[in-house]
C-alpha cells in the first residue's frame, strides 16, 4: 500500500495517544523482552573466536572473521621509518582530534593519520547531544548511576567515574574553544533529557551537535599546525619484539604504498564497526566505521571486552530507500515523539533505554504489527508532526533542522507526516580493554573513543559517546605525550604478526578476510 495511505492511522490516532502515559519496563520484564527480541541474543549470529587474547569467547561472526583475518603487510616489509614521532594518533574523528590536541599541548611531536579526510567520522554525524552534569539539580553521581543502570550494571566503574567527573571540565574546554552549545533565553546552557536519564543533561547544538564540535576541533588541529596525513589507513602495528608498541604501518590510499611510522606511543581512535553490517543490519555509521582498531590491537595482543554486545539505535530510517539506516535522532523522542505501530497504538515508553525500545520495535514487527513498505521493508512510525501539535508550528525546523533537511531532500515534510523507522546498527558497546588513562593491555598502545570498551556496559546511554571520546581522547593524548618524553624510540619489528600468524595456522585458520577492512567492499570500484 502507498506510504501516504499507511500514514493516515498516525494522524487519526494522535489525539487519543496524547492522553496516554506508558510505564517503563521493570528490570525483570526488560530482561525477558531483550532476551527474546534483541539482536544481541540471536545465538546463530555468534561464534567463538578461535585464537588470540579472547580465544574461546563468542562474538558476532562478522567481527570474529575480522579479528582472525589476514594482515595486508608482508612480514619482510622494509621497516625503515618514513616518519618518526612521539605520538601517532590513528583516526581523525572526535577522539583522534582530542587526543592529538592534548598530546601536542603536552609538548609531543604528533602525527594524526586518518584513512579519509580529517573529521570524516561518526563523531561529525552525532546529532542528539553530549551528556554532562552541568546544572544545579544534577550531579556526576547521578550521571554515574543513570549510566550504570542503562549499561545493565556491567560498566567499568573506574572508567565511568572518570568520565562523569571530568564532564564539566570538558564542556568548559569546548566552550572556550568556541563550540556554540544551545542556550536558554537567559543565556545559560540549555540541557535536554535523553532516554534512560533521570535528569536533563544533554548539551546540544540543535541536531548537529557532532558537526559543531568537530568544526571547532578540526579547526584547532589545523590552527596548531599538527601534522595530519589524510587518506592514510593504519594496516599493521609495530612492536619492539617484546610486546611493546613502537609505531604502525600506514597504507597511502592514493598510491597503495606502505608508510612506516616510528612512534614512541600510538593512540588508536578508529571508531566503531557499523559498516560490518552485523546480522545484515543497516547502519547509521560513517563509511569508515569498519572496526580497524579492534583488529590491529587484537593482533598486537590487546584484550577486548564485551564484544558480544552492540547498540541497535531504535530509530533508523526505513523510508525512503536512499536513507535506509540513517539516524533519526533520539532527540525527537526526547521531545515527545510517539512510536506507533500499524494499528495506531503506542507500545513502549519512548524514553526507555535503547535496548528496550529497539526490542519492542522488533517485537511489534515480528508479531505482525509492523508497517510494510512497497519494497518489502518493515518498520513502525515515529510521530514527528506531534511535536508541532504539542509545541507549536516551526518546532521541528527550530530544534531539528538537520532532520528536516534529511527528509526534505526526498520531498518529505516531517512536520506534516510521520517517518517510518526500524533499529539500525549504531554503536559497539564493547571494545579494547583500557585503563583510566586509555592505555590498552599492550604497553604504549592507547585506545580512545568507540574502539575502546568497558565504559558503557551492555547498553550505552544517549549522549555518552561524545563525552567518552573527549575525556579519553584527552587522557590518552596527555599520558602518551608524557610517556614519550621519558623514553627512547624502541625497535621496529613485526614480531607480533609472526606470532599471530603461527597461532592462526595452529588453529587451521588460513586464507581469511583481509583485516583491517578499511572500507566496506561495496564502496570499492574494482
Ligand atoms: O549518543 C547518541 O548515540 C545519540 C545522541 C544519538 C541520537 O539519537 O541523536
Protein topology:
Layout: H1 3-6, H2 8-17, H3 27-37, E1 46-48, E2 58-60, H4 61-67, E3 83-90, H5 94-105, E4 110-113, H6 122-125, E5 130-131, H7 140-150, H8 157-177, E6 191-192, E7 202-203, H9 209-223, E8 227-229, E9 232-239, E10 245-252, E11 258-268, H10 292-300, E12 304-305, E13 310-317, H11 331-334, E14 338-340, H12 354-366, E15 371-372, E16 378-383, H13 385-391, H14 395-399, H15 401-408, E17 419-428, E18 431-433, E19 445-447, E20 452-453, H16 464-485, H17 495-506
Helix pairs in contact: 3-12, 5-9, 5-16, 7-8, 8-16
Describe the structure.
With 526 residues, the chain is an alpha/beta fold. It is 33% helix and 18% strand. It is built from 17 helices and 20 strands. Strands 3, 4, 8, 9, 10, 11 and 19 form a seven-stranded mixed sheet that branches. Strands 13, 14, 15, 16 and 17 form a five-stranded antiparallel sheet that branches. A three-stranded antiparallel sheet has the order 5-7-6. 54% of the residues are buried. The model has no long low-confidence stretch (mean pLDDT 97). It binds (2E)-2-methylbut-2-enedioic acid. (2E)-2-methylbut-2-enedioic acid (MEZ) binds next to loops.
Termini, distance in Å?
Answer: 38 Å
Query: Uncertain segments of ≥5 residues (pLDDT<50)?
Result: none
Bound molecules: (2E)-2-methylbut-2-enedioic acid
Whole-number mean pLDDT: 97
Q: Which structural class do you get from the secondary structure elements? A: alpha/beta
Number of helices: 17
User: Strand count, sense and closure of the main sheet?
Assistant: 7 strands, mixed
Strand content: 15-25%
Shape: globular
Q: Could you give the count of β-strands? A: 20
Instruction: Assign a percent range to the helix content.
Output: 25-40%
Rg over C-alpha atoms, rounded to the nearest angstrom: 23 Å
